[in-house]
Amino acid sequence: MTRLHRIDCLQYANWSEKIFRQMRAAEMDAVHVTIAYHEDFREVARNVADWNLRFQRHGDLIFHGRSGDDVRRARREGRTAIFFGFQTPAPIEADIGLVEVVHTLGARFMQLTYNNQSLLATGCYEAEDTGITRMGRQVIREMNRVGLVVDMSHSAHRSTLEAIELSERPIAVTHANPSTWHPALRNKPDEVLKALAESGGMLGFSLYPHHLRGGSDCTLAAFCEMVARTAELTGVERLGIGSDLCQDQPDSVVEWMRVGRWSREIDYGEGSAANAGFPPQPEWFRDVRGFGAIAGGLREAGFSEAEVGMILGENWLRFFDASFGPGQAPKP
Questions:
Q1: By C-alpha distance, which of 200, 247, 323, 229 is closest to 11?
Q2: What is the tens place of the pLDDT at every residue in 33-72?
Q3: Do 63 and 81 meet the contact criterion of CB atoms below 8 Å apart?
Q4: Using an 8 Å Cβ cutoff, are 28 and 243 in contact?
Q5: Phi, psi at 34, each rounded to 5°
Q6: Under a CB-based contact definition with an 8 Å cutoff, are residues 269 and 185 in contact?
Q7: How far apart are CA 57 and CA 313, in angstroms?
Q8: If exposure means fewest CB atoms within 10 Å of the residue's CB, which of 126, 209, 285, 316 is most exposed?
């Protein structure tokens, strides 16, 4: 039987040859990597340069992906295509012209917010959600034009619903889970998930313990049952994995994610000081090689072999094909 594609649509690991070899052991055809949390344009350009050096040093394992065809190329060549994304709009600063520039540099996803209010939308930690801003409306239009995917993973609910409505192309929530299953601030209510699916958008299920029922002790069966219940709401064709894997990162990186340069106080966000640092991953998903365990768990939860393949990569590949080029790919 022909092996179906495998795609993880969000990671922020402490990148190393060890991790790239694990990607190959897991037969990962593509991984969407975060290259910005709070960085401005110049800092992102430095991060792209750092990745260019990794592509040179580890060209037998990874290369820069820009289109769905690069995912197919990766499978043919036994390598992993790396796709760039931002978890913040900070790299475009206050300049809409930089949307096309960052796309040219290889960015394919950009969140309109990272937890806080931005120039474009409201983050999920804010007390009041005022929705998409005037600039946000213009940036969404420009992102649609060039083929930069609107990602609302860290956005508040009104802002997410407005982005779904305003965007002429389907958007993504690359890494979150249903809030009915686990009420983390970052997880999404059924109203948002239904609107996302009906507009042709994609949800990537997160394996980050703070987003899981039971945290680090979440069982594979519980996770896969959650996937099954979500499929009943959205349809299986709108679902994928965005693991939010932060492998081998020191706890200082969590502080950078949550605080950046906007505060002198530690912001623990979802919960209390008990959430400081990276919690251990569930034992069945220590690294990307856990995709094999998820495949088995989805079968046990009642998914067919074709549906397992859709969730583990084929749905994302279809979305990549429709989303990364210029012009309009209308909603269904």
A1: 247
A2: 999 999 999 999 999 999 999 999 999 999 999 999 999 9
A3: yes
A4: no
A5: -80, 125
A6: yes
A7: 27
A8: 126
Q: Which of 87, 76, 72 is nearest to 316 (CA)?
A: 72
Instruction: For residue 227, give the H/E element and its range.
Output: helix 220-234
Q: What is the H or E stretch that residue 31 is in?
A: strand 30-36
For 124, residues 6+ apart whose C-beta sits below 8 A from its C-beta are 113, 115, 154, 155, 156, 157, 185, 186
As given in the structure block, the two tokens for residue 219 are 């069982």
Residue ranges per structural domain of the chain: 89-323
pLDDT at 12: 96
Residue indicated by tokens 């430095």: 46
Q: How many CB atoms lie within 10 A of CB 279?
A: 17
Beta-carbon contacts of 276 under 8 Å, excluding residues fewer than 6 positions away, are: 251, 254, 266, 268
Give me the mean pLDDT over the 80-103 stretch.
Answer: 98
The per-residue DSSP string of 175-219 comes to S--BTTTS--TTSB-HHHHHHHHHTT-EEEEP--GGGSTTGGG--
52: left (phi over 0), alpha (psi -120 to 50) or beta: alpha
Residue 222: closest CA among 261, 190, 182? 182
Higher-pLDDT residue of 264, 46: 46
How far apart are alpha carbons 174 and 125 in whole angstroms?
A: 18
Element holding 161 (H helix, E strand): helix 157-166
Q: Which of 271, 132, 298 is nearest to 215 (CA)?
A: 271
Mean pLDDT is lowest, of 70-74, 178-182, 274-278, for: 274-278
Tell the CATH topology of 89-323. TIM Barrel (3.20.20)
